[in-house]
Amino acid sequence: MEADTAQLQSVHAGGAQSPATVSFSSLHRRPPSVRLLSLDAHGRVLDWINWQDATCLYARDAVAWTLGEPCLRVHGGINRLSGEQSIIELHPIVASRGSARSSALSPTPALTNTALFARDAHLCLYCGNEFSRPHLTRDHVMPLSKGGRDVWENVVSACFHCNSRKSNRTPQQANMPLLAVPYRPSWIEHLILSNRNILADQMAFLKAHLPRNRRRSAV
User: Distance from the CA of 100 to the CA of which of 54, 145, 148, 212 falls in 20 to 30 A?
Assistant: First the structure.
């Protein structure tokens, strides 16, 4: 099934292939937005990469090993000598050659409302009700005006009503106990929270690397 087309000159290895529009097809009816999980050669998790960047790794012979059944097939240029079109099958988990620098491993996830609401499962951590994203706000447990910081450990999801009711007070002052303790997600947790199209092989790999007992009830 042809899913999309795009220009990708880096797929052309050497000068034997003619310039062409590169198309890719989904082997499992996955949307074109599917991303691949990038690791270093030692199996340490790096980040999500799109199919274009993954294809470049394959074309440069920079892939050390892969996991999972192929999920995307990239159709490249036509070989002038053989007349055959190049095809690269992409796997859901791709380990590139070499080792990642320590600074590239387990970075601090960026604090965004999207990531915050995903961390808190779209629940208001004061009333416990679930809300859609437009009806949630970022609440600072220790208000900024009282010296609180805009960091993972000091923010929770809150509905508009609870945020307004709490106002410029701490949960204790407002008599609004938190239902869970805010925490900074690990990089693995962040990758799970930031991708809505995680494939089964990717999820199994990430879950195996999750830290244990991160979220604790506050009551």
Answer: 212
H-run or E-run covering 157? strand 155-159
Tokens in use for 193? 């929270």
CATH number at residue 143: 1.10.30.50
pLDDT in tens, 146-195: 999 999 999 999 999 999 999 999 999 999 999 999 999 999 999 998 88
Host domain of residue 150: 113-174
Claim: this prediction has a pTM higher than 0.85 = no
The tally of domains found in the chain comes to 2
Q: Quick one: which of 147, 151, 118 has its CA closest to 132?
A: 118
Q: Return d(Cα 142, Cα 93) in angstroms, integer.
A: 40
Phi/psi of residue 23, nearest 5 degrees: -120, 160
- 80 and 119 share one domain: no
* Tokens coding 108: 């601090």
Categorise residue 129: left if φ over 0, alpha if ψ from -120 to 50, beta otherwise. Answer: beta
Cβ proximity of 123 and 129 under 8 Å: yes
Q: How remote is the C-alpha of 58 from its chain's centroid?
A: 21
Angle at 190 between CA 44 and CA 111, to 5 degrees: 130
Sequence-distant (6+) residues with CB within 8 A of 162 are: 124, 126, 127, 139, 176
Is 49 found in the same domain as 9?
yes
Residue type at 197 in one-letter notation: N
